[in-house]
Structure formats: structure tokens, C-alpha cells
Amino acid sequence: MPVIRRARIRIHSRSLPWGHSARLEGRGLLASQPGKLQDLINGYLEAFFAQASLSAGCNAVHNLNERCACWLLLTHDRVDSDTFDLKQEFLAVMLGVQRPSVSISAGTLQEAGLIAYRRGSITILHREGLEEATCPCYEMIRSEYSRLVPLVDGRINYAASGNS
Description:
single chain, mainly alpha, three-stranded antiparallel sheet, two-stranded antiparallel sheet
């Protein structure tokens, strides 16, 4: 029995600058495929809570360059391009630091040839190198999302989740 199951959720959301968002009527969406959608939502929530928990610990024990690489990889996993918009102010909030610290960390990753960074735009130049520069949290977060939100080419993989 799902723990989270409400007809109406009273929250406001904000999309990140690089994505698309849509507003959907909950009743119609739930009626379309109720069990599958609930499983997907519950999986996403579990993965998101794992990410939030890991991020809190990560901010406490890993250095800024490792954490910055982790966030860049997590963002890269969710966009369809090696280049995406990401403001220093937003990244500073996610990393729990002041904006000038983000400039220093992004500069270090850029000098290493892993990224190109200019005026709010990031280009991943060497993903494998960025994966080597990140902390172990990236792989733990990535594997939780892969396990709990099974997607193939951006679509739900019902075979992997056991749902049909």
C-alpha cells in the first residue's frame, strides 16, 4: 500500500532553467495508468530522498571540486546536450557555498580540461575525467535513480520495474 497517495498536493514547483515543465490535471493522469504511475512516482520520490540524504552527507565530508563534479554529472544525466545553462548562484545553493567558491571550483575543473564554463553555460568536455574527479556519491545517487526510476531513452522501462 503506497505511503504517499493524495488527491491534491498543495505545493508550487519551479522548473530548472534548462528544462521543460508541464502542468497536468492529477485525476486524468492517475486514471490513465494508476498502478504504473504510482509506482513511478514512488520510485522517483525514494530516489530523490536518497539523493537529498546523500547530498547532505556529501556536503559535510567531500571537497568542493568533488561535489561540483557530482552536481555537473547529475545535471548532465538529465539533459539532452553536453552544453546546458547553469548559473553560479544556483550551483552555489546546491553545493552549500558562496558564489565565489563556485567560480574557483569551476575554474579548476575547466583548467583540467573537464568542462568549459562561460557566463552561466557549462559544456562537459571530458565526462570520463569528470567521473574520476567526483566523489563516490555520484555513483550511489545515479544507481538509485537507475534502480528506482527505470528509464530507457527517456521512457519508462516497465520490464525493468516489474510492471507491465
